[in-house]
Amino acid sequence: MTSTNAGHSGDGDWLVGNPTGGQLASALWIGSVGLLILGLQPVLLGALYTEGHVSGDELALVATAEMIAIAIGSAIVAMLLSARNMRWKSAVLLLLLALANVWTAYAAGANTLMAARALAGLAEGGLVAVATELIARSRRAERIGGFFVTMQTLAQCALALLLALYVIPAAGSAGGFLILAVVCVLSLIVAFVVPADYADLPKDENLTNVLTIPSITALLCVFCYFMFFGSVWAFLEPLGAQFGIDGRTVGLIVSASLAAQVSGAMMATAFEARIDYRLAVAAIGVVALVCSLVLASGPDLITFWMAALAMGFILLFIVPYQIRLAITADETRTAVLLVPAAQLFGLAIGPIAASLLIDGKDFRPVPEFAAASAVASVALLGLFILVSRRRRAVA
């Protein structure tokens, strides 16, 4: 088994190092375990809400605590820690996440749940960085990023269906979190296939290249897009309940939406080189706006299904183009390492910001907030294009 040795020059598709296909797949799986919660939040948090463990406002706080912790964890590992001993780091993070999931299963009270999910988020963020650090070293980061989101979403889809149809009806939310702990323990086998060390990128990994207007604008564009999705996704079950859709049906809608995400990720992976990233990001922003307005209009069951499926499709279809956006903003690829953090901060801030607008049990302001976030994402893309053109003209 070869590993990506530090300082080794790139070969073929790699800027530095030359990991085997098995090593790449294992790193992507480790990152996927860290993001399983993204697809399962509506099912697991919806179950916590239905069981009376959290109120609507507390649900938003629990979701936000975990998403912010994932973003912090991914940024710390990607930017501040060396890419050495990745196998042992992966194993330790998996064990920490398993313990946090067990703690969540037996937690009593919203504050304890927030603490447990914050701990889980830090571990999950570190696992995400195991994958994104390797993706950043590829000459075809967009394509491998597409494979990454496809893998994680397939796993989310299968687990969401399992939890919604069998585990949660029989064992409640606690059973769902215990299943996640089991997945972490089983993944320890995969952790020791990850490259032991990642080769150093030919640059200093610091924030200098991120603190520019193009990089900041690009990351804010990503942030606002995921804020759109995070706000609706966290409140999908209570939003559906307001329109007369039961929790079991919403669970099926979540699973189907995850399947749509797989389709979106696969299509983006196949066509990412044929579509200009600016056109893709703008068009998807418009679709996000339309979906949000539909959900705010009090849709019937069929329309609710269609909007949720459309949101699922566009969520991951956009990811390879967001990676290209970040690479264009900063060719040293420092900004690319922060794309997951921008995505996760968006997913975190979306629910808590939208929750401030909720009036009692009226959840319609949630998709209205999502619509505003989608508009902001497209506007920031326009600003990025304008700034980039001016910089090229000056150069």
UniProtKB/TrEMBL annotation:
The chain crosses the membrane at residues 27-49, 61-83, 90-108, 114-135, 147-168, 174-198, 210-236, 248-270, 277-296, 302-323, 335-357, 369-387. It comes from the Bacteria. SUPFAM superfamilies: MFS general substrate transporter (SSF103473). Keywords: Cell membrane, Membrane, Transmembrane, Transmembrane helix. Pfam families: MFS_1. It is found in: Cell membrane. It is a multi-pass membrane protein. Its main location: membrane. It comes from Mesorhizobium huakuii. InterPro entries: MFS (IPR011701), MFS_Efflux_Transporters (IPR050189), MFS_trans_sf (IPR036259). This is MFS transporter.
